[in-house]
Amino acid sequence: MSPIIALLLTFAADSPTLPPPAATEIDFARDVAPVLKRNCQGCHGAAMQQSGFRLDDGVAALKGGYGGAVILPGKSAESPLVHRVAGVKGVPVMPPAGRRLTAIEVGILRAWIDQGAKFPAVTLSEAKRPKLNHWAFEPITAPALPPVKNSAWVRSPMDAFVLAKLEGKKIAPSPEADRRTLLRRLSWDLVGLPPTVEDIAAFQADTRPDAYERQVDRLLALPQFGEKWARGWLDQARYADSDGYEKDWVRPYAFRWRDWVINAINQDLPFNRFTIEQLAGDLLPSPTVEQRVATGFARNTLTNREGGIDDAQFRFESTLDRANTVSTVFLGLSMGCAQCHDHKYDPISQRDYYSLFAFFDNAEEVDIDAPRAGELGPWLKGRAEYQAKREKILAEYKVAELQAAWEKDILYTIAHPGERTDWDLAWDCVNKLTEGGDGGKIVRIPLEKRTPRERDILTDHFVKNYAFAVGNKRYKELKFDVATKQLAQLKVDYPQLTQAMVIAENAQRHPTYLRVRGDYKTNGIEVAPTTPAVLPALAKTGPLTRLDLAEWLVSDENPLTARVAANRIWQELFGTGLVKTSDDFGTRADKPEYPELLTWLADDFRRHGWSRKQLIRGIVLSATYRQASLARPELHEIDPENQLLARQVRLRLTAEQIRDGALAASGLLAKTIGGPSIRPPMPAGVMELSYASRGWGEAWKVSEGEDRYRRGLYIQFLRTSPYPQLMTFDAPKSTAAQCKRDRSNTPLQALNLLNDPVFVEAAQALAVAAVTQPADQRLEWAYRRALGRAPSARESARMSAYFTEQQRLLADDAKAQAALAPYVPPSATRLETATWTGMASVLLNLEEFITRE
Amino acid sequence: MQDERHFLETHLRRDFLRRGLTGIGTLALSSLLAAESRTEAPDPLVPRKPHFAPKAKNVIFLFQEGAPSQMDLFDPKPALEKWHGQSLPPEMTRDLKLAFIKPTAKVLASPRKFAKYGQVGMELSDMIPAMAKHADDICLVRSMHSEAFNHHPGQLLLFSGSMIGGRPSMGSWVTYGLGSETRNLPAFVALQSGPGTSAGSDLWSNGFLPSLYQGTVLRTGGDPILYLGNPDGISRESQRARLDALRDLNQERQDNTGDLEIASRIHSYELAYRMQMAGPEATDLSQESPATIEAYGINQKESRAYGTNLLMARRLVERGVRFVLCMHSGWDMHSGINAALPKLCAQTDQASAALLTDLKQRGLLDETLVVWGGEFGRTPMSEIRRPDEAGNAGRDHHPNGYSIWLAGGGIKTGQVIGETDELGLTITKDKIDIHDLQATILHLLGLEHTQLTYRHFGRNFRLTDVSGNLVKQLIT
Questions:
Q1: What angle in degrees, to the nearest 10, is found between the helix axes of A546-553 and A271-280?
Q2: Least CB-CB distance to B205: which of A308, A729, A733?
Q3: Which of A145, A624, A676, A735 has the maximum number of C-beta atoms within 10 A of its C-beta?
Q4: Cα A454 from Cα A364, distance rounded (Å)
Q5: Measured between CB atoms, which of B205, B228, B237 is closest to A809?
Q6: Chain B: residue whose CA lies nearest to A632
Q7: DSSP string spanning B100-146?
């Protein structure tokens, strides 16, 4: 016990605020039980155990609550229970509302505690939590298929569930969509891009009975499949290319994990392995670099490197975020409420929450060399020369000796805070401004024990930030500003290895505590890593690791993971999950229309070795999926949200798909897969609204060449200054797991599609391509390019009328023509081309163009 | 003409629709009516009834980013002179949450002269002479308390109710709660002067609310709203021709698919078209008198940016914009505060005062809540980053007992709420937490903070998180 606490306790014991103990022999049943029952057991009894504390059970009562023991037998004056009911200043008073205990009642409790706090034997049994009946917690076993009348409609067992319900309600399913619509839908859903004109023509001409299956398999095998399905996973994993707080440092190597996801999905890494490697790849026996890269999942958490922050707070927040993300993404349970108290609605206690938290509490953030294909050779070749040049620069500016002295001063400052304010700041900067933020750790490691990478990081920091310690004048005298530039240039001139942000287990495990009221500074009881009590227990005993947690998530006994994952895949293919709240499978979530269908899917998913591609293939081959998406007014009333699935749905495309679609239709899209994030032109003024623009972060250097035209998935996502088009079309903010996207409809979206230079450029490119066609075929050609179909007669007439009008408006305006048609192919006039830019713009703005039908 | 059209479009439009009247007003209006009279998905931005009668309709939040120093502006602490240059005893500094300095840091007295202003006799510093004339028009709070002591978490707490990102900002909550009074302009507008803020787009983020509640940045250069202007070569006539074709083709698609969402899309394009007209009009300061321009300090270099934004704010509120967030950064004075503070005050004081005068003259102050404040305050002790440079002293972050002021709709003005101790270390009277402030702002708008909720992650979230008490003293 610390002296201060001892002092406080003594103070409390002598405090006049505590009523004296009753001077009689106490009988529990006669004297104590009525007091406890009347005042305490409403919240600390059989039905509810606030703060994990119950008074109806002797064993449990003596153990205490989340804050630790509250009854100290023989020591009533030191017992927190007495302090609370007596209303000692500085502790929360109990009961928190209503009548307070009288001095006599407090005296009875004191006497009882002083006499040993004996409970009668009958209460000495720990009651179990009541078992819960909730469909999503039931084991996953293949449900029987319901009988149907129209068995010819059924293409897949999953159709039986839908058809049986529809037949029961006397609703006919919608007819199958036409081939063009089907292939466009499939392409958007499987690879996130529209089919080409040739793809559609080939499918329409294919008379083989398995023509549709062939299209499905063709698309599943495309590398763009990984890009499309990675995006949904990135949403859930709160992927971003920056730290998220204040200076919002760019994470130049975050993409390495994104590439891992794309590859894993393209290779159809089974979802159970996909889970294990991301949560605990580092704990697998002899993990490969790729398996360690996978743990970057945990590194997508936000990082605060603002000066002066309490590191303990943000370490705590990161760990919370990891626990919350795993809970939401894999279990479909929002456990965040239990950070502060037992969950009000779902059977998750605060202890459960911190037990899950404990799995991540021992994880360290580390950055490792993770070379991409082809990087290692050139790096090795240039290494010696690079090192020599680097050493030369360091020697020229006498870095080694200055750094040694600086380190000594920094270590002194750590031990003597407040003595020299400039050095206090310099020390804070070591923590915050080093690459990866590990400077504080490195500076404490003796020089000879540092890895080469650690040495380089600290030296780079020193040369760059020495001014914090010695001031700008001295810094300039030393020409460290020049040295900084030279060192940076060297890194550009010689190949560097790609890094990966990963996690690793700290060799020295420190205990994890429940935090009372969720406050990171208030430790409660110690907790060990354990899975939530309401779910089937982990078979293993002994200290549990992240690997155990990951294996438990994908074990046969776990009722949630497969359901949750299958539901999200369904959501991608129908716009809405079978469980609408795809982030909440708890007891308050709406009961789904088709729980058996979801259980069937989950079972099927696991039977097929957790193959994502198999599950997707199965769903898109179903008759349910192939239905037309046309509205059915007769169903508006009874099924406004299409929960019965008597049709498919029309869905506004995602932010990335809208961009990709415009680039694809105009022929501008570059299809390179993977690699560092790209920076398409960003409108002036956007970056300037963030702190990063004050010269701390990296400016938005616009990408060159084909990088400007790559898929939206690769756009560098800076959390405090996100790319506007992504935000306007509902891309996630990437602060927490997001399991479903909004599909809003706003005037700003119209302005974006009409006037954003990216879309104007796409319209210009489409126009140039259109006018190279014979004049009488241009309209049909452009329609096919944009929408995969020919225009109807009415549409042709309307477009022609617009063409005439637009041409008239441009006819005498050479400047406007030049702006709209900067390039004119030999087959057309500038006026025609400029007019066609308008035509193309109309096509790219059509509701149909940004809709998957 | 402008006012008439504005009135028509914002107030009578719905009545026309209800009564089925068409063919009234300008061409744009009639085409809008045509679009709107068709069946379509419900518009989530229609004005909604508040929970009870509001005292204010709109908010102008003058966010002073970086944390202004209360003891140099609003909360005189003559006792600091006694301690100037000395460290405070440890028992006095034990509970401070400090970002950079240590508890032993030496006290820095304020060189500012304070005097009493207004009938109320409000003590204010000589740094803010223009605002001082409005002492009776504001309610000064000297007892603000924040849980956060770093900028980004502090700004998140102030505007989203949580130190952790991802929640909707105040303006988004208000828009979600009340809808929009204007269909020509965004309901929630953000304006920035000075360099970028720590929290960046989090300050106007819709968080987990649908993105139509996101704040729209009104830009100072180029298009006032991103992508508002037509591309080079597209005239207003060409734009109309494009949109007419789009509307007819989209209508064709709706007839073929039966999807009501298409009508909403058509509507959005018409709104965008009107925004293209209304945006430049709203931001065209040439319509303002030279006297007004002068009053806001727009003619002076140092106050131009902030003054322009505040005048814009008034124009936006006039046109039905619900929530205007004016952000001015530069208050984070860790070093050289005695040189930096006069600069920031010269940038802002005159325009803040002019805004109150202007709103009052136009009868808008009664329905507009004006809030001035930062994410926290500054320490009575000095921060010295460069001991070798004279005049380098600044102040660190101090979340316990800082000052803000409020004015306008529903605020009981001409009073000072709260007190801090003689050194400004702690609050001694009427502590007001961030969540209390938020609850009170919502209350003034007719919204009960515990009822303005949104379901996300299986739980109902609100701006005030799990706390917040109405500050009755603030309200008339």
A1: 160
A2: A733
A3: A624
A4: 15
A5: B237
A6: B258
A7: SS-TTPBB----PPEEEETTTTEEEETT-HHHHTTGGGEEEEEEEE-
Task: Give the range among B92-96, B115-119, B467-471 with minimum mean pLDDT.
Answer: B92-96
**Residue A788 tokens, joined:** 């995969």
In whole angstroms, how far apart are CA A133 and each of A130, A346, A534, A587, A663? 10, 11, 10, 9, 50
Q: Which site among B43, B94, B201, B270 would you substitute to test the A interface, given the most A Cβ atoms closer than 10 Å to its Cβ? A: B201
Share of chain A above pLDDT 70, in %: 96
Task: Check pLDDT > 70 for residue A333.
Answer: yes
Residues on chain A touching B216 (C-beta within 8 angstroms):
748
Structure tokens at B133: 């004339």
Q: Among residues A254, A274, A219, which one has the least CA distance to residue A715?
A: A254
Tokens of A17: 């605020």
Query: Sorting pLDDT into bands at 50, 70 and 90, what band is B301?
Result: very high
Identify the band that residue B38 occupies on the pLDDT scale cut at 50, 70 and 90: very low
Range of weakest confidence among A97-101, B157-161, B344-348:
A97-101
Do B232 and A847 lie within an 8 Å CB cutoff? no
Bridge partners of B329, per DSSP, are: B65
Other C-beta atoms within 10 Å of A62: how many? 15
**DSSP per-residue codes, B265-287:** HHHHHHHHHHHHHHHHHHT-GGG
Q: Does residue A110 contact residue A82 with C-beta atoms inside 8 Å? A: yes
Q: Rounded mean pLDDT of B424-438?
A: 97
State the CB neighbour count (10 A cutoff) for residue A526. 12
* Four-CA torsion A612, A613, A614, A620, nearest 10 degrees: 110
For the segment A248-257, the average pLDDT, to the nearest whole number, is 94
Instruction: Report the pLDDT averaged over residues A97-107.
Output: 87
Query: What one-character-per-residue DSSP string does B1-55 give?
Result: -HHHHHHIIIIIHHHHHHHT--S-S-HHHHHHHHHHHS--PPPTTS----SS--S
Spatial separation of the C-alpha atoms in residues A415 and A401, rounded to whole Å: 22
Q: Is B321 left (phi over 0), alpha (psi -120 to 50) or beta?
A: beta
Name the closest residue on chain B to residue A727, using Cα atoms.
Answer: B211
State whether residue A576 sits within 8 Å of chain B by CB.
Answer: no
Angle at A153 between CA A148 and CA A154, to 5 degrees: 65
Query: What letter does residue B150 receive in the DSSP assignment?
Result: S
| A427 vs A430: CA distance, rounded Å | 5
Summarised one tens digit per residue, pLDDT across range A738-780 is: 999 989 889 999 999 999 999 999 999 999 999 999 999 999 9
Report yes or no: A834 and A814 within 8 Å, Cβ to Cβ: no
The structure tokens listed for A336 are 């965040």
The length of chain B in residues reads 476
Query: At A524, which amino acid appears?
Result: G
Q: What's at B141, amino acid-wise?
A: V
**Residues 132-191 in B contacting A (C-alpha not used; CB under 8 Å):** 149-153, 164-166, 186
ipTM here: 0.88
- At residue A697 the predicted structure's pLDDT band, cuts being 50, 70 and 90, is low
Stretch B154-166: mean pLDDT: 95
pLDDT tens readout for residues A229-251: 999 999 999 999 999 998 899 99
| Strand pairing class (B459-462; A851-852) | unpaired
Q: Cis ω on the peptide bond leading into residue A95 (within 30° of 0)?
A: yes
Which residue type sits at A232?
G
B456 φ/ψ angles, rounded to the nearest 5 degrees = -155, 145
Chain B nearest CA to A436, separation (Å) = 20
Please name the residues between 101 and 140 in chain B that touch chain A, using a CB distance below 8 Å.
101-105
3-state secondary structure A502-562: EEEECCCCCCEEEEHHHCCCCEEEEECCCCCCCCCCCCCCCCCCHHHHHHHHCCCCCCCHH
